[in-house]
Design brief:
heterotrimer; A alpha/beta (about 270); B alpha/beta (about 375); C alpha+beta (about 70); B: about 375 residues; alpha/beta; Rossmann fold; about 35% helix; C: about 70 residues; alpha+beta; Alpha-Beta Plaits; two-stranded antiparallel ribbon; 2 helices; 4 strands
């Protein structure tokens, strides 16, 4: 399979910069396979990313790729998609990138229901700067800026996206890489703002400090803590406390922003005649 | 156009910016409401969909700047408008546009600052921010209109320079020029010079997105046109790939400057008013230049050989023009609605060859003809 | 296709120079096909044992392993 999609990578740039055992490469691999399965024309495919470890992903892809400023990927992508709606636009962000510095852009992209497929690499930490807490760091976990354990509550990205108006919300872990690929495919097919949260391991900046082991052990932790939507439906909040619910979490119908704008342009043109 | 070209109309400066933008081919606007620039967004919202363009009010100023860059990369000429506090927020991505060489225009209708200041009062306190607002040694072009008609012309020119040099261009307005109404006659569309960005002349496989032509400017492929490449704010090689190679970093930054500073003849423009035989001169820009012109006229009537040098391109600073002026006059009066931001540049360019005197007003009130005239009368004995 | 699994041909390819030796593929392989060599990089030790499940490929963070399965 990989051989079929490896042509979508800028192979001269590999190996990538990520640490051994880092899950970002697994997410990127799922994304490439999803784009392949979707049959996207590479010339019409755009990948926008923000800043952080995960956002380096864009540079390895042989599409129209834009590595932007921290937190702003969705705002850049909004400009691209509105200017040229025929392009298929994927937006890759980290958890801090998307929900801290980029939190405002995230909720407003969701509110507009603009046809972008956002893949959020959630590794619970700011990896590139060496392990500071993010809005997704679980309470009590240790980070360089939470040396006594983290005091704040974490966001639930899926609930945030749903509450803000996203019309497709899903979650998978890097252990469930096949599911992740399928969810990205389904998200991209949704005409609207789609959010796929990918739970991924940062063994270097998060795992080590919290004694979670290496990349493999963190991957196995994902396996042991993930429950499907179906399983979760039968579980109590107490049972779900340390679980990750995976699968398609939410889907809705709503007008898509760029299509609505195109309709306005057409309507005004009609009036002119 | 909202009215036929060639017919006299009463028009506001901000409105003229919109007319200029549309005439120059701008088809994308992203912005956020802020006094005293808001009319630009309001009019763009009305006009752009009528010409098949796109308008979006983003969630904040940062996002507006980002969306403008994204749209430009997707092939539309793009512009945003803001004022003081919003201009501060846009700086991050103005730097991105400079680094990634994405054409775009930022209109800053200056108001009293710092901070929220007096939103409705004019000022020229963003002169240095226009030059150095974003971090790093970036190049930038800033133009400064002083009339409604010139707001139209310089918006066209700003768009053209942005496209030609792949650089963010700042239209540095002020509240007076933005809000005043004047009788203007706009040129017919066929008389408006419109510049398009250079397209690649090679097939995609041979395209190096950051390999410059002789003029220092690389041809630009739009996203979606079949040239797949990488754009980043990181230091990048000619392929667009990130690198930390010191030689590549240095050459990139020097080229970003060369592409502007090697073309000063094209980029710089100043207005010279009654300077031929002038012994004293005013340097003023934007709204203040209007009072300065009148002061020069009145000084002449009073027998003082005065003249006006008005930087139209304010960045890069027209220092040769000021230096040349300094050789011919005894006194240069710099009048500006700040505490001396351009005066320092003028002093540097004058280099002690003439006396330099500043008139600075930071009350949110205009500098008057009388104040400038009084300064022109006080020629130092041995300057 | 009832009954026993259809016979298949599995092609396992390794792009060794991209491998960072994280060992995820080795641990997840149900048939002990893969191992890390003396340089800590992945190598195919038992190619004949491969059932083509693709776990190694799906979980390799470094695009090192490609699994092709051809049904006969």
């Amino acid at each position: 399979m990989l051989n079929q999609v490896v042509s979508s990578l800028r192979q001269e740039r590999l190996p990538h910069i990520w640490c051994p055992g880092c899950g970002n490469g697994i997410v990127l691999s799922a994304l490439v396979k999803a784009i392949h399965e979707l049959g996207c024309d590479p010339d019409k495919t755009v990948v926008v990313s923000g800043i952080g470890c995960s956002s380096r992903a864009a540079g390895y892809l042989d599409f129209n790729t834009l590595h932007t400023t921290h937190g702003r990927a969705l705002a850049f992508a909004t400009g691209i998609k509105l200017a040229r709606p025929e392009l298929t636009v994927f937006v890759l962000m980290g958890d801090g990138d998307a929900t801290a510095i980029g939190g405002n852009h995230f909720i407003h992209a969701a509110r507009r229901n603009i046809d972008l497929t956002a893949v959020i690499f959630n590794n619970s930490i700011y990896g590139m700067t060496g392990g500071q807490y993010s809005p997704l760091t679980p309470v009590q976990k240790r980070t360089t800026t939470a040396p006594y354990g983290h005091l704040e509550r974490a966001f639930d990205i899926a609930e945030l996206a749903r509450g803000a108006g996203a019309t497709y919300v899903a979650r998978a872990t890097t252990y469930h890489a096949g599911l992740l690929k399928n969810l990205i495919v389904a998200g991209a097919r949704n005409k609207g703002f789609s959010v796929i949260e990918a739970i991924t391991a940062c063994p270097t900046a998060y795992g080590r400090r919290n004694k979670l082991g290496n990349g493999l052990q963190m991957l196995l932790w994902q396996r042991d803590h993930a429950v499907t939507v179906k399983q979760a439906a039968k579980m109590s909040p107490e049972e779900l406390r340390d679980k990750i619910v995976i699968g398609e979490l939410y889907r809705a119908e709503a007008p898509e922003f760029t299509a609505t704008y195109e309709e306005l342009v057409a309507r005004l043109a009609q009036k002119e005649k | 156009m909202s009215g036929p070209a060639g017919v006299a109309r009463l028009m506001q400066g901000n409105e003229a910016v919109v007319e200029g933008a549309l005439a120059a081919g701008v088809r994308f606007f992203a912005g956020y409401p802020i006094t005293p620039s808001t009319e630009i967004a309001e009019l763009m919202a009305e006009r752009l969909p009528l010409v098949g363009g796109k308008f979006i009010q983003m969630e904040d100023e940062i996002a507006s700047m980002a969306a403008v860059i994204g749209a430009s990369l997707a092939g539309l000429k793009a512009l945003t408008a803001t004022s003081g506090p919003g201009f501060s927020l846009k700086q991050e991505n103005i730097g991105y546009a400079a680094m990634a060489e994405i054409p775009c225009v930022i209109v800053n209708v200056q108001r009293w600052g710092p901070s929220t200041g007096i939103p409705t009062a004019p000022a020229q306190g963003d002169v240095m921010q226009a030059r150095w607002g974003t971090h790093g040694d970036h190049p930038v072009i800033a133009l400064c209109p002083s009339s409604v008609r010139e707001a139209f012309d310089l918006t066209v020119r700003a768009v053209n320079l942005a496209e030609k040099y792949r650089v963010p261009v700042i239209l540095l307005m002020d509240e007076v020029v933005g809000h005043m109404r004047e009788r203007v006659v706009l040129p017919p569309p066929e008389e408006v010079e419109v510049v398009e960005r250079k397209k690649p002349r090679v097939p995609p496989g041979d395209y190096y997105p950051y390999r410059p032509d002789e003029d220092g400017v690389p041809p630009m492929a739009n996203f979606g046109d079949g040239y797949r490449y990488h754009v980043t704010g990181l230091v990048h090689d000619e392929k667009g790939n990130p690198t930390t190679d010191p030689r590549v970093a240095e050459e990139l930054l020097l080229r970003l400057h060369r592409k502007i500073y090697d073309h000063l003849d094209d980029i710089l423009s100043v207005e010279r008013y009654m300077l031929e035989d002038a012994e004293v001169a005013v340097v003023a820009y934007g709204a203040v230049a209007r009072a300065a012109r009148r002061a020069v006229k009145e000084a002449r009537a009073a027998g003082i050989n005065a003249g006006l040098l008005r930087p139209v391109t304010i960045w890069p600073f027209p220092e040769r023009e000021v230096a040349e002026l300094a050789q011919r006059v005894r006194l240069v009066v710099v009048a500006e609605m700040n505490l001396g931001q351009l005066r320092l540049e003028v002093e540097r360019a004058v280099g002690g060859r003439a006396a330099v005197k500043g008139i600075h007003r930071v009350s949110g009130e205009l500098i008057t003809v009388e104040e400038i005239l009084a300064a022109l009368r006080e020629v130092p004995e041995h300057a | 296709m009832a009954g026993a699994a259809a016979p298949k041909v599995v092609r396992l390819e390794v792009q060794r120079n991209w491998c960072k030796g994280c060992g995820i593929c080795v641990a997840l392989c149900p048939k002990e096909v893969l191992k890390l060599d003396e340089f800590g990089k992945v190598t195919v030790a038992e190619p004949a044992a491969c059932i083509g499940c693709g776990r190694c490929e799906d979980h390799c963070p470094d695009f090192v392993i490609s699994v092709e399965v051809e049904e006969k």
